[in-house]
Amino acid sequence: MVKVSGWPYAAHMLVNAAALAPFNQVTPITSVLFDLHSTLVDQGDSASWLNLALARAPHDFTEPDHRALLDFLDRIWENARVLDPESSRDLSAGAHARVFHRLLAQGPAVDPTLANALYEVLLDTWVAYDDAIPTLAALKDAGIKIGILSNVGVSIHHVLEREGLAKFADGVVLSCEVGSVKPDLAIFEASLDSIGSTAAETLMVGDSGHDDVGGTALGMRTLVLPRTRGRNHGLAVVVGLVLASR
Questions:
Q1: How confident is the model at residue 5 (pLDDT cuts 50, 70, 90)?
Q2: What is the model's pLDDT at position 16?
Q3: Strands (DSSP E) along 15-135, which ranges?
Q4: Strands 202-206 and 171-174
Q5: Confidence band of 10 (pLDDT split at 50, 70, 90)
Q6: Residue 233 main-chain phi, psi, to 5 deg
Q7: Where are the beta strands (DSSP E) in 96-207?
Q8: What is the Cβ-side half-sphere exposure of residue 99, based on CA atoms within 13 angstroms?
Q9: What is the C-alpha to C-alpha distance for residues 129 and 153, in angstroms, rounded to an integer?
Q10: Is the torsion defined by CA of 66, 39, 131, 171 positive or negative?
Q11: What pLDDT digit, counting tens, does each position of 136-166 carry?
Q12: Whole-angstrom Cα distance, residue 119 to residue 32?
């Protein structure tokens, strides 16, 4: 069997999910599951990331080399699915670190001490979008259960606390803690269990037409908000959808 990836695979996933999805009765949305990275939090800019790493591991660059590294870091994770098609990086800290360093090795030459520093401060630039907390607060005020469902190989609980998101979550499910990655059904089922909800009454919100659509096979409504630049991610539309479902 030929294995496809990228957009063809995303389309394949959507077709399969539609074929498997049950025909549920239309019900009000009482729960929302959110992806984290590029949905509730922005990864920050590559200049801030590099500056944090350089504070730990000083290194001199020529201006062209500095710009080349910034441009590479800005999109370093985009090749992860090619290097790691099974998403092993999202199942353990060791695998996550190995994949990161393999990705980094594909770009401009980086001193090993700086490479380690870049990995150590990787999560320090993750910042909640300006509309993340207002959106979560509005959903809570409307009596909506909230879950956070993330493919991630390292613990991000401290990020949720630091960014003020943890207090809104009724459940948090991380791939590295449950041994399953989106779009596998098992991780969606675990997330539904964590908030005591069903697929028919839950909305999934994410940024990936590959990872975040897996719940449609359970009959879960899904909203994909493509990645954006800037402090606002357009999350207010989630509140509108939830209220409209009533």
A1: very low
A2: 59
A3: 31-34, 41-42, 127-128
A4: unpaired
A5: very low
A6: -110, 5
A7: 127-128, 145-150, 171-174, 202-206
A8: 24
A9: 22
A10: negative
A11: 999 999 999 999 999 999 999 999 999 999 9
A12: 31
